[in-house]
Amino acid sequence: MKNLLSIEELTGEQIQELLQLAHRLKSERGQHREQPLSGQTWALIFSKSSTRTRVSFEVGISELGGRPMFLSTRDIQLGRGEPIKDTARVLGRMIHGAVIRTYGQDEVVDFARYSKLPTINALTDQEHPCQILADLLTLEEKYGVGAWKDMKISFLGDVDNNMGRSWMWAAKHLGFTLALAGPAHALPKPETLAAINYDGIICTTDAAEAVRDCTVINTDTWISMGQEAEKGTKEQAFFPYQVNDEILKLAAPGHSVFHCLPAYRGYEITDEVLEAHAPIIFTEAENRLHAQKAVLYTLATSAR
Question: Could you confirm whether 23 is annotated as catalytic?
């Protein structure tokens, strides 16, 4: 594995290997026997604001022996129109790896191509692979290693987004049932479903159908970064897909609610549900650190 650009490009075996390593690195935190990033500088190139992504990568790189260098696009020439391929060819001669949080998937792909550095997608409009790995790690901690294979997992709200697409690829690679529910205009495009080509994905406008007998219920903000102008119309369309106590009555016994945060209480999730499931939601946030350390470790050791 040379890069982490998407869940789409991984195999089921690679996902499971990353999760196994993440479990180990979490248990060994503060006592790591190896420092695979020792002597290395990794750039964090962010076009989008961040709390969990920035902190987890800076801490993770440091704990594996490396030095993180945060580069906001407001402060470097990318923000003034320099092509990503030119920035990549410069940084490729100076640093050892890059973590990129941006809008276009093509920017991450082009950076990896032209820099020839290990490159990690820390979020694009197309996919959010690091979050899915953290979610799967959290699921295994709660229900057991490999427990997803016997589960129905759901995602309510704006499911034609980076989280929805990443969950769909994970479902195909790992073989679990995934139910996506949202307004018709926010369901996955036919071409997306055709590319994934997996019968275990259910798309519906009926939130009850998606949640019924479901073990893990996911949601996310209805207003992704860059969509603020759509706030009023989106909220009206998405309220039937709110995760609340009433809809959760249909879920399987022992169910969990996941949210990748930040959460907008009273919109995609009620305050009562978030607080009831806060232990697992904030473990999910913590697990960004451990899942990403597994990615960093894998890329660093693969490059040797």
Answer: no
